Amino acid sequence: DTGVSQNPRHKITKRGQNVTFRCDPISEHNRLYWYRQTLGQGPEFLTYFQNEAQLEKSRLLSDRFSAERPKGSFSTLEIQRTEQGDSAMYLCASSLRGGRADTQYFGPGTRLTVL
Amino acid sequence: GENVEQHPSTLSVQEGDSAVIKCTYSDSASNYFPWYKQELGKRPQLIIDIRSNVGEKKDQRIAVTLNKTAKHFSLHITETQPEDSAVYFCAAYSGGGADGLTFGKGTHLIIQP
């Protein structure tokens, strides 16, 4: 499968615990995005990377959230001290930088449930 | 920042009929407008997109139109089939330092047999 992959697909955790998700983009794509999607809503942008550089963060990304893409390939999103409001689907997307707007391809998501 | 409104939230059509979903955006600098289809429990999949230098784009039964003056764009699906049933999201890209897509809230399309 040459598409975007994410692990784990599901995560159940207790409030206050830390969780980490992984995203593997399409291999030649140099841009990687994180979105959050709650039930009945469209995806909301969180942050994105161009290669290993994190270039933009949404105001939705609180201090408890941190994302990395250390070698410009896979990325991790960590949520510290999880809260019930963090329960959502976390989607990763990747694109190939070219022109001003790039087609983004999404992964299957990680569904987080905070009890 | 960009704001995208999408209507209707639910659309039920008879199999074989056409479906139209409409979106408006707020940022006149937006220049890229993709449409994604999301089936229950699955990833959003790009079905068609349009850039601001064209007014219409067609791919088999799917077409998208863009009116930059009015800041709205629409998805048209003709000869609907049961497999078209899904949630459809429109999105806009405005750049300006925030390189994420801004999505609408989605339209649940139901194809009645």
Protein described:
The complex is a heterodimer of chains A (about 120) and B (about 110). By secondary structure, chain A is mainly β. Chain A contains no helices and eleven strands. In chain A, the strands form two sheets. In chain A, strands 2, 4, 5, 6, 9, 10 and 11 form a seven-stranded mixed beta sheet that branches. Chain A has a four-stranded antiparallel beta sheet with strand order 1-3-8-7, with no helix packed on it. In chain A, a hairpin with a 2-residue loop joins β5 (about 45-50) and β6 (about 55). The radius of gyration of chain A is 13 Å and the shape is globular. Chain B is mainly β and about 110 residues long. Helix content of chain B is about 0%, strand content about 55%. In chain B, the strands form two sheets. In chain B, strands 2, 4, 5, 9, 10 and 11 form a six-stranded mixed beta sheet that branches. In chain B, a hairpin with a 4-residue loop joins β7 and β8. The mean pLDDT of chain B is about 95. Chains A and B meet through β4, β5 and β10 of A and β4, β5 and β10 of B.
